[in-house]
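Show me any protein, keeping tokens residue-aligned.
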Amino acid sequence: MIEAGQLVLVISPKGKRFMQALDPTKELHTHDGRILMSEVAEAGYGGIVRSHLGHPYRILKPTVYELIKGVKRQTQIMYPKEIGYLLLKLGITPGCRVVETGTGSAGLTTALATYVGDTGMVYTYERREEFYKLAQKNLARVGLSHRVTQHLADIEQTGFEQTDADALFLDVRVPQDCLHHIPKAVRPGAMCGFLLPTCNQVSDLLRGLEQGPFTELEALEILVRRYKTVPDRLRPEDRMVAHTGFLVFARCMEKPEPFTRAPKAAASESDPELGPETDDEMDRDPEDTEATE
């Protein structure tokens, strides 16, 4: 039995999806006829309900992936492939206090609000009123408004109202102009994330991060290549979701330790052909090197 207010995903025989909060007093109108939401509640997750014309519809509990893909949008939202890595990198867990800038249509806000739980809070900033109102509707639609505090403000001008936040994420055009506001908003050692579409924007941001109290800089992109799910003809799909944005991460330290590149080793006397190690070897991630005894 599904309780009133819980989200349900109703799927037609042809795969069309209807997602909404359950209200047993209402009906869902489809091309296959009317569906009584009271019958949806009785069928439960995983059950089947029929329209008044006899067409079977499946009832499922929507995943976070489906919540994000179902967001009504007027802006480009972050893709789940970036959001998954971001949640882990920022350390988002129940009870976290997270600051987000660039609410947009609330795709990422939805994921953040899901994972901070009822004991955490997402503080999200948006400078355009039309997007602020759209995000408000999208969050209410999936029942997450109580986990989000929305601000209609331009943080470049106003800064953040919060202090000692556990993590922060910026999705703005010129994030380096907002970096000076971050140390006051987060606790020392908090992880910060940024989303940018082009290489030159990433370069500008990295220069800004190097001048502030930021360490552990990382820049990356995430690509996804799906495969045709036909056992006898398994091969990649003809198209793939490739570049959708660059992610940059940094840890904000109140008093960062000075960083000095280690000097290159001198050539070995026993082997004159062995020169100093290369920059690539010095910059290699230690996790990529197998341990030896």
Remarks:
- Confidence is low (pLDDT under 50) at residues 258-293.
- The chain has two domains: 7-62, 65-252.
- The longest strand covers residues 186-196.
- The radius of gyration is 24 Å.
